[in-house]
Specification:
It is built from 11 helices and 9 strands. By secondary structure, the protein is an alpha/beta fold. It is globular and about 65 Å long.
Length: 277
Amino acid sequence: MDAKVISTFHSDDRKHKKWGYIARKFLGLGAYISVRWPDKTIAVSQYQSKVHGQEFKGELEYIPNGVPAFDKVNPNLITEKWDLKGNDYILAVSRLIKHKGLHYLIRAYSILKNVDKKLVIVGEANYTDNYIKYLKNLAGDNKNIIFTGNQTGETLAELYSNAYLFVQPSEAEGLSIALLEAMSYGKAVLCSDIEPNKEAVANLALTFRNKSIVDLSQKLRYLLDHPEITVEMGLKLQERARIEYNWDNIVKKTIALYESVLNPVAIEPKEMQTVKA
């Protein structure tokens, strides 16, 4: 019996700046195989389904990543560790790699004047120690820019729960889990205007021009000056996460796709069909 293969296309890694020319060619080959060879290929965003289906002349089934419905928690650990008391910081959660765009965020934040919110960057290196040094050099001696390293569990839950605003400055994404998590916690979002981000937030968040430090800084200023907008935005994004990225629905769709591959409906050719009395 032939084995059935289902692939999931998470992200186009060819756009990640850490890869050189040869690596990008092999990643492109892997992407082609992922679309053309399996019995079914899942795309985590509608944008990927369309773009890579056209590029590789294949069909991708849209089933997004999901996110739990998180409950907010009070600040305890983050107060002890970084003196964060709640609603007093801007949050970014990401691997510290170049295409995530954190250097744009640090520079945009540094431009701002009279800011009463800290900038908290959560994440660690992924074979990118030089990039971390670059980020910390950009931050300089600004004590309001905090690098927490990788965080999980209760600490990460507190960081999400008590942020004033979540920023996603990536140059490229498939579908950002950190972005979905921020939405599920009811956080306002400011993100780069790449298609996967815009698809995720569906015009309910504020976007800035990808790679534009000036535009990012201006949008930060706007949201800092309008707290009532951030509250309303967070509630709308939370509802979108609850409906569009609900794990129960996504699991049902995934199971249905697997069953369609394992048990395809056999249809008799018209010339073989007979009318039954």
